[in-house]
Design brief:
Layout (H helix, E strand, L loop, with lengths): L6 E6 L5 E5 L3 E3 L8 E4 L10 E3 L2 E5 L10 E4 L5 H15 L9 E10 L17 E7 L2 E7 L2 E6 L2 E12 L3 H4 L3 H18 L3 E5 L3 E4 L3 E12 L5 H8 L12 H13 L9 E6 L2 E6 L3 E5 L2 E7 L8 H20 L1
Length: 333
């Protein structure tokens, strides 16, 4: 089915179903309340018509994808550009302009052998903590396995999460006491609560550790019972980018500053963007991380890290590499 589609969208729902939408898609500006639609936008939310209504919708089990051996000619990663941005973020923190920002380093390669669509076969081999997602539009597209939910909205109840702080799984015992990682996670959780406290009654659960196999993260579930009716588009703008991927404080100026840093580091426009599905009045959206982006034969694997006052260049560069290697093992091994 997938091999023959030129345009399609895919997302796993909160209840574990895998929903496939086939093109051609019609595009609309505002949420189409009575139709099944995917929400596809870039990090800057610059798409004026982000709601994509498929011509066909299927609930699928395993994706029918032809697996091929892929050969990628990867470019060597160098820290120079990232180090320059890291220094500028530190200067902005020292000057009191921001408390945090999230630069992105992107590993690039050229596909020498195989079809890029065979990457989608990796979405079949996934644990419960991950949400497979994909968007393919002709020669361009992206797919991934994200652990991060932007929010799920059902009958006035909104569920989201703080997901920040990263370590190797074998470092789990010491990770739980790492003051820098705990502080970074606290920034994210506190900011989420403050953004939601005026729209509903917020319940913040205890911080725990999410084990994703090769990596572990701090994870705090957050639930909100909304005081009134809020549009999905309004909630997306309120919650994106999550504090795990955006600047603190988040203003028009600090967002533009982050987008400029991302552009300088050749970050794909849709990395970290909201990706969602509206179905039967329920909206489920994820953060498009831990994935692969492509344009023809050009392949990109981006990864981001939260930089705060306590961050150190060597540690952040190492974290970025750990995240990319986890993606590459999943999709290219």
């Amino acid at each position: 089915m997938i091999d023959s589609c030129e345009q399609f969208a895919l997302l796993k729902t909160m209840d574990g179903r895998l929903i496939l939408g086939e093109g051609p898609f019609s595009e609309v500006e505002e949420c189409p309340h009575f139709e099944t639609a995917f929400y596809v936008n870039d990090f800057a939310l610059s798409d004026a018509k982000p709601w994509k209504i498929p011509s066909k919708v299927h609930e699928v089990g395993l994706l029918e994808v032809t697996e091929e051996e892929l050969e990628i000619d990867w470019e060597e990663m160098t820290p120079k550009g990232f180090a320059e941005v890291f220094a500028e973020i530190n200067q902005a923190i020292a000057g009191g302009e921001i408390e945090k920002s999230v630069p992105v380093a992107t590993e690039k390669g050229v596909l020498k052998k195989g079809s890029v669509k065979s990457l989608l076969a990796s979405l079949n081999r996934v644990g419960d903590a991950f949400y497979p997602y994909a968007w393919v539009d002709g020669e361009k597209g992206f797919c991934g396995l994200t652990p991060e939910v932007l929010f799920n909205l059902r009958k006035g109840r909104l569920n989201t999460m703080a997901l920040a702080g990263t370590a190797k799984s074998e470092e789990r015992d010491v990770f739980q006491y790492d003051e820098k990682e705990i502080r970074e996670h606290a920034f994210v959780a506190q900011t989420l609560v403050s953004k939601l406290s005026d729209v509903g009654m917020v319940t913040r659960s205890e911080r725990c550790i999410m084990d994703l196999g090769s990596l572990v993260h701090f994870h705090t579930p957050i639930e909100v019972f909304l005081y009134g009716d809020y549009s999905i588009d309004e909630l997306v703008k309120r919650l994106h980018p999550t504090p795990a991927l955006g600047p603190l404080p988040r203003t028009q100026e600090t967002m533009q500053q982050l987008i400029n840093w991302r552009d300088r580091l050749d970050c794909p426009a849709k990395f970290g963007a909201p990706f969602g599905l509206l179905e039967n009045g329920v909206f489920h959206s994820v953060v498009a991380i831990r994935g692969v982006h492509w344009d023809g034969d050009e392949i990109s694997v981006p990864s981001g890290c939260g930089v705060i006052e306590a961050s150190r260049l060597t540690n952040e560069w190492r974290e970025l590499g750990l995240k990319r290697e986890a993606v590459k093992r999943r999709f290219f091994s």
